Amino acid sequence: MAYRHPRLPRKPEPHIALWMLRLLASPTGLPLFATKGGFASDRLAYALDLDHWIDPEDRAFDLQAVRGELYELLARAERTAAHLPLPTPLHGNAEQLAALVGLDAVQTHILAFTVCLHCDPLLEETSDLLGSLSSTQVAQTLAVALGLAPAQVRQALGGQGLLARTGLLTIDSRHSGDLKSKLDLLSNNFADQLLSSDANPIELLRDKIQPAPAATLQLADYAHIQPMLDIIRPWLRHAQESRRRGVNLLCWGPPGTGKTELARSLAQDLGCALFEVSSEDEDGDPIDGPQRLRAFRAAQSFFSQRRALLVFDEAEDVFND
To answer: Do the beta carbons of residue 243 and residue 256 sit within 8 Å?
Structure first.
Protein backbone atom coordinates (compact mmCIF):
# COMPACT_ATOMS: atom_id res chain seq x y z
CA MET A 1 0.00 0.00 0.00
CA ALA A 2 1.34 3.44 -0.92
CA TYR A 3 2.16 5.70 2.00
CA ARG A 4 0.54 9.13 2.13
CA HIS A 5 1.81 11.69 4.56
CA PRO A 6 -1.06 12.56 6.94
CA ARG A 7 -0.71 16.28 6.20
CA LEU A 8 -1.07 15.84 2.46
CA PRO A 9 -4.57 16.45 1.11
CA ARG A 10 -6.78 13.85 -0.45
CA LYS A 11 -7.14 13.99 -4.20
CA PRO A 12 -10.10 16.19 -5.15
CA GLU A 13 -13.29 14.92 -6.74
CA PRO A 14 -13.30 15.34 -10.53
CA HIS A 15 -15.61 18.37 -10.51
CA ILE A 16 -13.52 20.07 -7.79
CA ALA A 17 -10.29 19.35 -9.70
CA LEU A 18 -11.77 20.85 -12.87
CA TRP A 19 -12.76 24.07 -11.10
CA MET A 20 -9.34 24.27 -9.45
CA LEU A 21 -7.50 23.76 -12.74
CA ARG A 22 -9.58 26.37 -14.54
CA LEU A 23 -8.73 28.93 -11.87
CA LEU A 24 -5.05 28.02 -11.57
CA ALA A 25 -4.45 27.89 -15.34
CA SER A 26 -6.23 31.20 -15.95
CA PRO A 27 -4.24 34.35 -16.83
CA THR A 28 -4.88 35.61 -13.31
CA GLY A 29 -4.22 32.41 -11.40
CA LEU A 30 -1.26 30.97 -13.30
CA PRO A 31 1.41 33.55 -12.34
CA LEU A 32 0.23 33.39 -8.73
CA PHE A 33 0.35 29.59 -8.49
CA ALA A 34 3.45 28.62 -10.50
CA THR A 35 6.40 31.01 -10.15
CA LYS A 36 10.12 30.78 -10.84
CA GLY A 37 10.69 29.81 -7.23
CA GLY A 38 8.16 26.98 -7.24
CA PHE A 39 4.51 26.60 -6.29
CA ALA A 40 2.63 29.05 -4.13
CA SER A 41 0.98 26.00 -2.51
CA ASP A 42 2.58 22.58 -2.43
CA ARG A 43 -0.72 21.16 -1.14
CA LEU A 44 -2.49 22.20 -4.33
CA ALA A 45 0.36 20.91 -6.47
CA TYR A 46 0.15 17.52 -4.74
CA ALA A 47 -3.63 17.40 -5.05
CA LEU A 48 -3.39 18.01 -8.82
CA ASP A 49 -0.64 15.39 -9.40
CA LEU A 50 2.14 17.95 -9.85
CA ASP A 51 4.01 16.74 -6.77
CA HIS A 52 6.97 15.49 -8.87
CA TRP A 53 7.81 19.18 -9.32
CA ILE A 54 7.90 19.85 -5.58
CA ASP A 55 11.59 20.26 -4.67
CA PRO A 56 12.82 17.92 -7.44
CA GLU A 57 16.25 16.46 -6.67
CA ASP A 58 17.22 15.41 -10.19
CA ARG A 59 16.33 18.59 -12.08
CA ALA A 60 15.68 22.29 -11.75
CA PHE A 61 12.17 23.64 -11.38
CA ASP A 62 11.17 24.25 -15.02
CA LEU A 63 8.46 26.90 -14.96
CA GLN A 64 7.61 26.50 -18.64
CA ALA A 65 7.30 22.73 -18.34
CA VAL A 66 5.20 23.02 -15.19
CA ARG A 67 2.77 25.41 -16.83
CA GLY A 68 2.60 23.20 -19.92
CA GLU A 69 1.73 20.23 -17.73
CA LEU A 70 -0.92 22.27 -15.95
CA TYR A 71 -2.53 23.06 -19.30
CA GLU A 72 -2.48 19.35 -20.18
CA LEU A 73 -4.17 18.46 -16.91
CA LEU A 74 -6.84 21.07 -17.60
CA ALA A 75 -7.42 19.78 -21.13
CA ARG A 76 -7.81 16.24 -19.79
CA ALA A 77 -10.25 17.39 -17.13
CA GLU A 78 -12.28 19.31 -19.72
CA ARG A 79 -12.65 16.12 -21.76
CA THR A 80 -13.83 14.06 -18.81
CA ALA A 81 -15.01 15.87 -15.69
CA ALA A 82 -16.77 18.73 -17.53
CA HIS A 83 -19.44 16.28 -18.70
CA LEU A 84 -19.90 14.38 -15.46
CA PRO A 85 -22.85 15.12 -13.16
CA LEU A 86 -22.14 16.43 -9.70
CA PRO A 87 -21.80 13.65 -7.10
CA THR A 88 -24.73 12.59 -4.98
CA PRO A 89 -26.35 13.89 -2.90
CA LEU A 90 -25.35 17.35 -4.16
CA HIS A 91 -26.61 16.66 -7.67
CA GLY A 92 -30.05 15.52 -6.51
CA ASN A 93 -30.39 18.28 -3.93
CA ALA A 94 -29.37 20.99 -6.38
CA GLU A 95 -31.81 19.72 -9.01
CA GLN A 96 -34.61 19.46 -6.46
CA LEU A 97 -33.93 22.97 -5.21
CA ALA A 98 -33.80 24.31 -8.77
CA ALA A 99 -37.18 22.79 -9.56
CA LEU A 100 -38.65 24.03 -6.28
CA VAL A 101 -37.77 27.71 -6.72
CA GLY A 102 -37.32 27.90 -10.52
CA LEU A 103 -33.55 28.25 -10.86
CA ASP A 104 -32.14 27.91 -14.36
CA ALA A 105 -29.02 25.89 -15.26
CA VAL A 106 -26.61 28.80 -14.77
CA GLN A 107 -28.03 29.74 -11.36
CA THR A 108 -27.96 26.09 -10.26
CA HIS A 109 -24.33 25.74 -11.39
CA ILE A 110 -23.28 28.84 -9.46
CA LEU A 111 -25.12 27.67 -6.34
CA ALA A 112 -23.50 24.21 -6.49
CA PHE A 113 -20.04 25.74 -6.91
CA THR A 114 -20.60 28.05 -3.93
CA VAL A 115 -21.77 25.16 -1.77
CA CYS A 116 -18.56 23.26 -2.61
CA LEU A 117 -16.45 26.39 -2.06
CA HIS A 118 -17.81 26.69 1.47
CA CYS A 119 -17.07 23.04 2.29
CA ASP A 120 -14.04 21.91 0.26
CA PRO A 121 -10.65 23.05 1.66
CA LEU A 122 -8.80 22.55 -1.64
CA LEU A 123 -11.25 24.65 -3.64
CA GLU A 124 -11.19 27.33 -0.95
CA GLU A 125 -7.37 27.35 -0.91
CA THR A 126 -7.34 27.68 -4.70
CA SER A 127 -9.67 30.67 -4.60
CA ASP A 128 -7.66 32.23 -1.78
CA LEU A 129 -4.63 32.45 -4.09
CA LEU A 130 -6.57 35.00 -6.13
CA GLY A 131 -6.54 37.39 -3.19
CA SER A 132 -9.10 40.08 -2.44
CA LEU A 133 -11.80 40.45 -5.08
CA SER A 134 -14.33 43.15 -5.90
CA SER A 135 -17.89 42.19 -6.80
CA THR A 136 -17.05 42.61 -10.49
CA GLN A 137 -14.03 40.34 -10.10
CA VAL A 138 -16.19 37.76 -8.32
CA ALA A 139 -18.39 37.46 -11.41
CA GLN A 140 -15.33 37.17 -13.65
CA THR A 141 -13.80 34.52 -11.41
CA LEU A 142 -16.98 32.45 -11.36
CA ALA A 143 -17.21 32.71 -15.13
CA VAL A 144 -13.69 31.25 -15.44
CA ALA A 145 -14.26 28.47 -12.90
CA LEU A 146 -17.59 27.38 -14.36
CA GLY A 147 -16.90 27.94 -18.06
CA LEU A 148 -19.66 30.52 -18.36
CA ALA A 149 -19.92 33.90 -20.04
CA PRO A 150 -19.34 36.77 -17.57
CA ALA A 151 -22.65 38.34 -18.62
CA GLN A 152 -24.48 35.15 -17.62
CA VAL A 153 -22.90 35.21 -14.19
CA ARG A 154 -23.60 38.90 -13.63
CA GLN A 155 -27.24 38.41 -14.53
CA ALA A 156 -27.58 35.32 -12.31
CA LEU A 157 -26.06 37.17 -9.33
CA GLY A 158 -27.96 40.41 -9.88
CA GLY A 159 -30.29 41.80 -7.27
CA GLN A 160 -33.33 40.86 -9.37
CA GLY A 161 -32.11 37.32 -9.99
CA LEU A 162 -33.73 34.36 -8.25
CA LEU A 163 -30.64 33.55 -6.20
CA ALA A 164 -30.82 36.93 -4.50
CA ARG A 165 -34.62 37.23 -4.39
CA THR A 166 -35.00 33.83 -2.73
CA GLY A 167 -32.15 34.58 -0.32
CA LEU A 168 -30.22 31.46 -1.38
CA LEU A 169 -27.07 33.30 -2.47
CA THR A 170 -26.05 36.94 -2.44
CA ILE A 171 -22.84 38.87 -3.07
CA ASP A 172 -21.45 40.86 -0.17
CA SER A 173 -20.97 44.18 -1.96
CA ARG A 174 -19.87 46.15 1.12
CA HIS A 175 -16.16 45.52 0.60
CA SER A 176 -13.61 43.44 -1.29
CA GLY A 177 -12.67 40.03 0.07
CA ASP A 178 -11.73 36.48 -0.80
CA LEU A 179 -14.17 34.58 -3.00
CA LYS A 180 -15.72 32.56 -0.18
CA SER A 181 -16.45 35.60 1.97
CA LYS A 182 -17.99 37.44 -0.99
CA LEU A 183 -20.48 34.65 -1.74
CA ASP A 184 -22.99 34.58 1.13
CA LEU A 185 -25.19 31.50 1.40
CA LEU A 186 -28.59 31.34 3.06
CA SER A 187 -27.29 30.02 6.39
CA ASN A 188 -24.29 28.48 8.10
CA ASN A 189 -25.71 24.95 7.75
CA PHE A 190 -27.02 25.29 4.21
CA ALA A 191 -23.93 24.01 2.37
CA ASP A 192 -23.37 21.09 4.74
CA GLN A 193 -26.97 19.98 4.35
CA LEU A 194 -26.87 20.03 0.55
CA LEU A 195 -23.71 17.92 0.58
CA SER A 196 -24.47 15.47 3.34
CA SER A 197 -27.95 14.07 2.80
CA ASP A 198 -31.14 14.23 0.79
CA ALA A 199 -32.38 17.64 1.84
CA ASN A 200 -35.94 18.86 2.27
CA PRO A 201 -37.03 22.49 2.48
CA ILE A 202 -37.70 22.51 6.22
CA GLU A 203 -34.29 21.01 6.98
CA LEU A 204 -32.55 23.58 4.78
CA LEU A 205 -34.19 26.36 6.78
CA ARG A 206 -34.13 24.71 10.19
CA ASP A 207 -31.82 27.26 11.85
CA LYS A 208 -34.09 30.15 10.86
CA ILE A 209 -37.56 28.70 10.22
CA GLN A 210 -39.31 26.40 12.69
CA PRO A 211 -42.71 24.67 12.60
CA ALA A 212 -44.96 26.54 14.99
CA PRO A 213 -46.50 24.82 18.03
CA ALA A 214 -50.12 23.79 17.73
CA ALA A 215 -52.74 26.37 18.66
CA THR A 216 -54.16 26.15 22.17
CA LEU A 217 -57.18 28.35 21.37
CA GLN A 218 -59.99 28.23 18.80
CA LEU A 219 -61.23 31.17 16.75
CA ALA A 220 -64.37 30.99 18.88
CA ASP A 221 -62.21 32.30 21.71
CA TYR A 222 -61.75 35.54 19.77
CA ALA A 223 -65.38 36.69 19.75
CA HIS A 224 -64.25 40.18 20.76
CA ILE A 225 -62.68 40.66 17.30
CA GLN A 226 -65.27 38.67 15.34
CA PRO A 227 -65.96 41.49 12.83
CA MET A 228 -62.26 41.51 11.90
CA LEU A 229 -62.16 37.71 11.63
CA ASP A 230 -65.17 37.81 9.29
CA ILE A 231 -62.97 39.82 6.90
CA ILE A 232 -59.65 38.08 7.53
CA ARG A 233 -60.75 34.44 7.19
CA PRO A 234 -62.25 34.57 3.67
CA TRP A 235 -59.45 36.89 2.55
CA LEU A 236 -56.74 34.46 3.65
CA ARG A 237 -58.69 31.45 2.38
CA HIS A 238 -59.00 33.02 -1.07
CA ALA A 239 -55.28 33.85 -1.07
CA GLN A 240 -54.47 30.24 -0.26
CA GLU A 241 -56.78 28.78 -2.88
CA SER A 242 -55.57 31.16 -5.60
CA ARG A 243 -51.91 30.86 -4.45
CA ARG A 244 -51.66 34.62 -4.46
CA ARG A 245 -48.30 35.94 -3.27
CA GLY A 246 -47.57 38.98 -1.14
CA VAL A 247 -50.64 38.72 1.13
CA ASN A 248 -49.56 40.04 4.52
CA LEU A 249 -51.46 40.59 7.76
CA LEU A 250 -50.13 42.93 10.47
CA CYS A 251 -51.19 42.11 14.03
CA TRP A 252 -50.34 44.98 16.35
CA GLY A 253 -50.54 45.19 20.10
CA PRO A 254 -48.56 45.07 23.36
CA PRO A 255 -46.60 41.91 24.19
CA GLY A 256 -48.63 39.09 25.68
CA THR A 257 -51.98 40.00 24.13
CA GLY A 258 -52.13 36.81 22.01
CA LYS A 259 -51.07 37.95 18.56
CA THR A 260 -48.92 34.89 17.83
CA GLU A 261 -51.57 32.58 19.27
CA LEU A 262 -54.12 34.20 16.94
CA ALA A 263 -51.85 33.39 13.99
CA ARG A 264 -51.71 29.76 15.13
CA SER A 265 -55.48 29.63 15.48
CA LEU A 266 -55.96 31.13 12.01
CA ALA A 267 -53.56 28.60 10.48
CA GLN A 268 -55.43 25.77 12.20
CA ASP A 269 -58.78 27.09 10.99
CA LEU A 270 -57.48 27.34 7.41
CA GLY A 271 -55.89 23.89 7.48
CA CYS A 272 -52.44 25.38 6.84
CA ALA A 273 -49.06 24.51 8.22
CA LEU A 274 -47.58 27.41 10.20
CA PHE A 275 -43.88 28.25 10.35
CA GLU A 276 -42.26 30.88 12.54
CA VAL A 277 -39.24 32.97 11.50
CA SER A 278 -36.90 32.65 14.45
CA SER A 279 -35.35 35.64 16.16
CA GLU A 280 -32.52 33.47 17.57
CA ASP A 281 -30.30 30.80 16.02
CA GLU A 282 -29.66 27.31 17.41
CA ASP A 283 -27.02 28.71 19.78
CA GLY A 284 -29.38 31.33 21.20
CA ASP A 285 -27.68 34.22 19.40
CA PRO A 286 -29.97 36.87 17.87
CA ILE A 287 -30.58 36.76 14.12
CA ASP A 288 -30.45 40.21 12.56
CA GLY A 289 -33.20 41.70 10.43
CA PRO A 290 -31.61 41.13 6.99
CA GLN A 291 -30.96 37.45 7.79
CA ARG A 292 -34.55 36.96 8.97
CA LEU A 293 -35.81 38.63 5.81
CA ARG A 294 -33.65 36.30 3.68
CA ALA A 295 -35.07 33.32 5.53
CA PHE A 296 -38.59 34.61 4.95
CA ARG A 297 -37.95 35.02 1.23
CA ALA A 298 -36.49 31.53 0.97
CA ALA A 299 -39.44 30.07 2.86
CA GLN A 300 -41.86 31.83 0.51
CA SER A 301 -40.18 30.11 -2.42
CA PHE A 302 -39.79 26.73 -0.72
CA PHE A 303 -43.39 26.59 0.49
CA SER A 304 -45.02 28.09 -2.60
CA GLN A 305 -46.62 24.77 -3.55
CA ARG A 306 -48.04 23.93 -0.14
CA ARG A 307 -50.65 25.40 2.16
CA ALA A 308 -48.54 27.35 4.61
CA LEU A 309 -48.45 30.53 6.64
CA LEU A 310 -45.35 32.31 7.95
CA VAL A 311 -45.25 34.36 11.13
CA PHE A 312 -42.59 36.80 12.32
CA ASP A 313 -42.79 35.99 16.00
CA GLU A 314 -40.99 39.09 17.25
CA ALA A 315 -42.26 41.69 14.79
CA GLU A 316 -45.66 39.99 15.10
CA ASP A 317 -46.31 40.06 11.38
CA VAL A 318 -48.28 37.19 9.86
CA PHE A 319 -47.44 36.44 6.24
CA ASN A 320 -49.43 34.32 3.88
CA ASP A 321 -47.36 32.52 1.22
So the answer is: no
Are the beta carbons of 275 and 145 closer than 8 angstroms? Answer: no
pTM of the model: 0.78
Pairing of strands 247-250, 209-211: unpaired
Q: Give the whole-angstrom CA distance, residue 169 versus residue 237.
A: 32
* CA atoms of 186 and 172, how far apart (whole Å): 12
Supply the pLDDT for residue 318: 39
User: How remote is the C-alpha of 29 from its chain's centroid?
Assistant: 25
Residue type, 91: H
Distance separating alpha carbons of residues 253 and 265, to the nearest angstrom: 17
Q: Please give the Cα distance from 139 to 226 (Å, whole number).
A: 54
For 129-158, the pLDDT digits (tens) are 999 999 999 999 999 999 999 999 999 999
Cα 265 to Cα 47: distance, rounded to the nearest angstrom: 57
